[in-house]
Sequence to fold (395 residues):
Amino acid sequence: MAQSLSFNTPPAPKAIVVGGSLGGLLAAVCLRAAGWDVQVFERSPQALDSRGGGLVLQPPVEAALEFAGIHAGSDFGVPSRDRTFVSRNGSVRRMYMPQTQIAWNGLYQRLRQAVDPATLHAGETFVSFREEGSGAGRHVIVRFASGREERGDLLVAADGPLSAVRSQVLPGAAPRYAGYAAWRGVLPERALTEGAHDLLQGTFAFQDGRGHQFLTYAIPGEDGSVRIGERRQNWVWYRPVAQGAMLDAVLRDRQGQQHTHSLPPGAMRDAEVRTLQHDARDLLAPHLASLVTATPEPFLQLIQDYEAPRMVFGRVVLIGDAAFVARPHTGAGAGKAAANALALAEALRTGGNANRIDVGLAEFEAGQLPADRQLVRWGITLGRRIMGGAVAQLA
Ligand SMILES: Cc1cc2nc3c(=O)[nH]c(=O)nc-3n(C[C@H](O)[C@H](O)[C@H](O)COP(=O)(O)OP(=O)(O)OC[C@H]3O[C@@H](n4cnc5c(N)ncnc54)[C@H](O)[C@@H]3O)c2cc1C
Fold:
């Protein structure tokens, strides 16, 4: 009896995931839970957890973790009770709005631990794919820079805002600069001044200025600790920068290398760090400025918009930032990737029936495309509201 059952059970369909950041790992754990064989290919040879700052924990992330059977634990996030609005002169207004903030590296590590290391291939850069066959025999062949070729039933593109997979299915498509950037920093809670510590305890704080916005909140420590004094303070400062010489100067690192979209911690030139600190003293409430001046290695990310016209191209599916780049004011980067991963796994719970894959992909796209499109547009609306006319001329 057992023998005839295993004889009739078709092999698990195979997904090739390109990108091993949050989107790729979320897709991997959710598809695995839906019965798929999943192999993840990430360009970076090292783990990514030494980078990243904070995220607001969104319900889709919790739902995807639950679907995948991952118990994040009570030390996953730092709760905040309210939102605090601080003015330049230091006056404070509070609004009750509970939420939880997590560390990017904490989520990344939990996902990585849940993925079988034998299925995670680091240092593999996607180059191209081709599709072959038809009906139940339809499949993709994916080629990597190492010369390796992989065959699968599905290619999941989770390779971020500059997706190479997307370049093949949508040549020329690229995110558009929104006219401003986010300067960011993370510092140990114990490095905060007493005044900043008292102001920021248990709160998500903002300072809205003319054409700029600063925000800050606590996240778990690098080792995951959520004990007071062992956590980290994450801050983000949105400021306009005109495209051209000014933007190029900001994106040139200390080795003189020109970056195009972001600068990692430690790469910002001393002159730019000094200008940032000077501007902070000039424009921010003193306790908030003290966070900027105490951060040795601020980093930077351009704010961009991108909306894919479709997410499914035969047996290729775009998810996360490869499909849609929503402004961070929505707090939805990881949440969007998680919603995509979960919806994909739910639509493709095939029980190994390859005929169902194309139907499932169509269902996935019909649900996710309008939601993600709306999110990108909501981000643009929020960005205009926050940055006002300051960026209208700069993009
Ligand atoms: C190191 C890092 C730190 C981050 N920190 C934060 C943070 O603190 N707060 C926040 O809100 N968001 C952060 N983000 C962005 C956040 O992860 C995304 O906005 C969101 O979670 C969607 O993720 P994604 O996996 O779709 O895209 P991304 O996170 O951009 O990941 C794309 C992945 O694809 C890989 N890749 C790209 N091209 C190829 C290729 N040709 N072949 C193989 N692999 C490729 C990249 O190396 C990367 O790991 C960070 C991203 C990274 C990569």
Notes: Residues 1-5 have pLDDT under 50 and may be disordered. The chain has two domains: 2-71+107-173+305-389, 77-103+176-303.
